[in-house]
Amino acid sequence: MKMLVSDYDGTYYLNDKDIYKNIELTSVFRKKNLFVIATGRSYYDFNKKEKLYKINYDYLVINHGATIIKCNKIIYNITIDNSLKNNIIEILNKKTIINSFSCSMLESRLTLNNTNITKIHVMYKTIEDVKYILNLLSNYNDEINYYTVCNDRAIEIVSKKADKYNAIKYISCIEKLDNNEIYTIGNGLSDLEMVKAFKGFCMKNSKQELKNICNNKYDSVSNLIEDILSNKV
Length: 233
Hints:
By secondary structure, the chain is α/β, with parallel strands linked by helices. Helix content is 33%, strand content 27%. It is built from eight helices and 13 strands. Strands 5-4-3-2-1-11-12-13 form an eight-stranded mixed β-sheet. Strands 7-6-8-10-9 form a five-stranded antiparallel β-sheet.
């Protein structure tokens, strides 16, 4: 048995035509294998897409690896340390926030003041504001992971323990899979560790850092699935 883990935005979803092709090939793949979506989206945001496109999977990893869902049940969840969170929010408020929310388990639109949260999302007016905040957040590199989203105008923050690599390792222990049985594909910096650690691939529209380490670049996840099924990779 093999397992394929795919990022969502810019990877599994490029456009409506491509995602329906991906879904069709995923259905074939899942007859004997496992398929995992690993996304930075919250449960609320991904659930809308899941219902719209009728996406099927065996495991869902959300919030950049903070939470794992199987059969609509949470089996793994990593929160941001509550004492650390207050320091982070103080930094985030050094520039005017135009939109913000936090996530907790399956709840995806909470205020930043909530405790036991898995992800913080903040949007700023300019990319320059984002760069300023990122520089301040770098003082906490040992305690948090953070990524820019929404055309680099927003920042998402999770615990340092929360990343897609750790989530995949957790799933692989459940399913008793070796690293060489796990395939990953993504296009962004939050996909870096999972692409590096397993049989990793990236999209042709990927960040350069990802292109530098992946085994091959694809136009569509469906093409990777075809190659896995035919033992070409």
